[in-house]
Each structure stands twice: as structure tokens, then as C-alpha cells.
Specification:
- This protein is mostly beta strands.
- The chain has three domains: about 5-25 and about 60-75 and about 275-355, Immunoglobulin-like (Sandwich); about 105-185, Immunoglobulin-like (Sandwich); about 190-275, Immunoglobulin-like.
- The chain has one helix and 24 strands.
- The strands form six sheets. Strands 1, 2, 10, 11, 14 and 17 form a six-stranded mixed beta sheet that branches. Strands 5-4-7-8 form a four-stranded antiparallel beta sheet, with no helix packed on it.
- The N and C termini lie close together (about 5 Å).
Amino acid sequence: MSRTPNLRRCWRLLPAVALAAVVADGVAAQTRSPGPAPPVQALPPPDGSTAPNPPVPPMPIPNVGGPTILAPDGDAAPSPPPAQRPLVLPTAPPAPPLPRVRPGETALTLSARFGAAAPAISGDLHWRIYADRPDQTGAFRLIKEDRSPRPTLALPAGGYIVHVAFGLASAVKPVQLRGEPIEQVFEISAGGLTLKGQVGDVRIPTGQISFDIFRGSQFEPGDKRPIVGNVLTGTMVLVPEGTYYILSKYGDGNSVVRSDIRVQAGKLTDVTVTHRAAIIMLKLVADKGGEALANTDWAVVSPAGDVITESKGAFPRVILAEGEYKIIARNDNRTYQQDLKVITGVDGEVEVLAR
């Protein structure tokens, strides 16, 4: 590799993330998950000395390729739409015994369902009973709380405000107690949402991918903030019925996917986001197949000159969206570069020659 005199200016370019806006929702299919890589430990020198060892890669990388990865013929097949099935909640604990109703009190029974003609909600409910008038500070005093799916509460006669939360969905209504037992049924149009990611048919491990959930469509105007951020793979999020868009980020590079989805009341929506990306390990070597040089500064640059990611070390591991890049390595005040083409699912090791 020859030195490039103009690379110092490129090295100082402000970082900018090139978003891979590939909408690829898919059903929750049976995928194979790559097993955890075994830990790698540096071995002592064979002569028993205390000389430092050459750098050791942090983990093995499958599908090792050459310095340049060729693009495949055609595009990957699109993923099928999200799968929806009835929302099954955890089994509710046994109902507590009915409270003793003293003179001047009224028994209030509460329950919730997914809609007017929908099944009852059997768990994950949080009931709060407030006074219907603010106190001297202007706040509505909390009278009682309960997390049972169908609680019965003994309360003094009077007016109250009942609030029930089901994840991020909720309902509220005023209640008047006049002595006779009453039952109030709340309707909460909400559903569940689970998320996971894959590359090809290989599941992305938890911890390497994150999800942010936004209300509405990604194509709607306006500044949007996530209603839930950094959702982990497989976590069920309870949200009001409606349209949402998911921002999924795989790794710390530029593999970002936005997807619009629809959540229905009483349904669990399983969404699999497909990323077109690969894991690349970089090495700066004096000779092909040689040992990696330590204390190397790295930058991955887009064709437009934007810095996608920067790192330091002998074996940096980067996750990049499918596309073309320029790899820049700097070691001992010398700069080297190499072109790279990343294709989906083809993880590899790229050697940059220090020449």
C-alpha cells in the first residue's frame, strides 16, 4: 500500500452516519443464532520470557475473505410482513380476598378489556385511585393503588378519579360511590410488540442491536422523539393501538433500518428487522498473513468522504451496512488505505498492508 498525502484532511472530516434506510419488516421466523465466541487468552512466550505477546484477536470471525469482498448477484429476498397473534399475558396471581366493607364505605370492583366486545385484560394492569378534588397544593391525592387484574376496593362514599395503566396505554374515568356496590369496566385499545433483528437468516444477538419506538409513521412530518428507547430483543412493549415506526441500529456503525408497523388491540405483533450488513475485522500488517500491528488508528470512510466509524487497536471489529468504503489506517505517523466492498451476511477479516 502506498501512502496518501491527502489523507490527513480526510481524517479530520466530521463524523456523519450514513443511514441504510432499508425497510425490511418480517415475521418472527425460526432463526439460528450464532453461538457465543469462546474467550481468547494471550499465551506466554515459548521461551518463558516476559516479552510482550503480539496482539490477539478478540474473537474468531467466520467466512474469512480477502482484502476486497465482491458483491453478490442480485438483492436479498424481501422479508414477509410482521406476524400477529393473540396477546397472551403472564398468569395473574390469585385474587386477594374481598375486603371488609365497613359502614359508610362502598365496594368498587374494577376490570379492563381490550375493547367493547373484546376479551378481558388478565394482567399487567396498574390501578390508581385519586381524590376527585385537588388539595391545597393543587395536586390530586393518591388514595389507593392495586395491580390485580380485577380488584375490589372498599372506599368511603364520595367522588374519585380512577386511572389504569397497561404498559404505555391507559384509561381514566370519574367514579361516584353512594353506598351500593358497583363495578366499572375500562376499555383499553392496546396491544403488544416484540422486536428482533437478523442478517439473512441468522439472528442478531441481544446486545448488538437496539430498537427505538416512535409514534406514527416515519413519513409523517415533524420532530419525533421515541416513546421507548433502547428496547432489547424479545422484550414485549405494551402500546396503544395504532401505527408506529421502529428505528433499529445494528452495532455502532451505519447499519440503521426504519420500519413502519401497525399494532392491533389484543394482538401481539412480532417484528423481525432485517439488516443488510456484515461484521468486519481490520488488521494492519507488514506482510500478507502477518501479525497485526498494535496502536493503529482506524477510520472507515464513505465514498462521499464521511467518516462512518473510528477506532484504535490491532483488531477493531466494525459492523457496516452493505456498500463501498475506504479503510484508512494510521500507525507510526504513516497512513495507509484500502478500498472495501461489504456484502450482506459475509463477515470477514480485512488486511491492510503497511507499505
